[in-house]
Amino acid sequence: MTRVLLVDDQAVVRAGFRVLLEDAGDLEVVAEASSGAQAVAAARAVRPDVVVMDVRMPGGDGLTATRRIVGEHRGEDGSRPPAVLVVTTFDLDEYVFGALEAGASGFLLKDCEPEELVAAVRRLAAGDGLVDSAVTRRVISEFARRAPAPAPSAPEVDLLTPRERDVVVLLARGLTNAEIAAELVVEVSTVKSHLGRAMTKLGTADRLQTVVWAFRSGLAVPG
């Protein structure tokens, strides 16, 4: 079972999400929180696999909570922190980009279809970060434009093989595994293998945070 923590200041939203997730059969809501501070405490207590996080809440916003949850639970033994799925209206771009910086693993629009929420939680639990398909390239493109100047030479870049670098650069352009495979004329399974090894070397938790690393390191550049 995938253990889920629901965070939203509206009880009716949490109740609706709980029903949708638990009806899936393989997802279990182990705790709920109505503020960022409560979310941090609940994450410490129950150690969920995935946190479904609202961003605008009284008593502590979701961005601060995301940063603390990801930071506090990154195990020294290499264990992954809980994956944070930010649920947003996307009218507030600053929250989206702030969540990227805070370590969120994925985004979903609040008006998504029920099956999309279930699929998103499953993907994050499996280590596949995502952005809602309707906004993937927009988010990555805008994040690239806003990204701070990269370090002159990030040492992690040298850990990657040439092919692993190619895969990470194409990922940072917003390409799917299938599109990367077509670009490099390889099998999708080969792309997954290269990406998995790259993420292990870089210490990134998922695809989305690998994109963030690519722009911060200078391996990928805007445009």
Q: What Rg, in angstroms, do the CA atoms define?
A: 17 Å
The largest β sheet comes out as: 6 strands, parallel
Strand order of the largest sheet: 2-1-3-4-5-6
The CATH superfamily of the largest domain is known as Response regulator
Low-confidence stretches: none
CA-based shape: globular
Report helical residue fraction: 40-55%
CATH class bucket of the largest domain = Alpha Beta
| Residues in β-strands, percent | 5-15%
What's the CATH architecture of the largest domain?
Answer: 3-Layer(aba) Sandwich
CATH topology of the largest domain: Rossmann fold
Order of helices and strands: EHEHEHEHEHEHHHHH
Q: Work out the number of β strands.
A: 6
Count of alpha/pi helices: 10
- Secondary-structure-based class equals alpha/beta
- What's the number of structural domains? 2
Instruction: Give the integer mean of the pLDDT values.
Output: 84
Termini separation comes to 41 Å
Keywords: DNA-binding, Phosphoprotein, Transcription, Transcription regulation
Protein name: LuxR family two component transcriptional regulator
Organism: Pseudokineococcus lusitanus
Domain HTH luxR-type: 153-218
Explain briefly what this protein structure is:
The protein is of the alpha/beta class. The protein has helices at 11-22, 36-46, 62-72, 93-102, 114-125, 136-146, 162-172, 177-184, 188-202, 207-217, and strands spanning 2-7, 27-33, 50-54, 83-88, 106-109, 130-131.
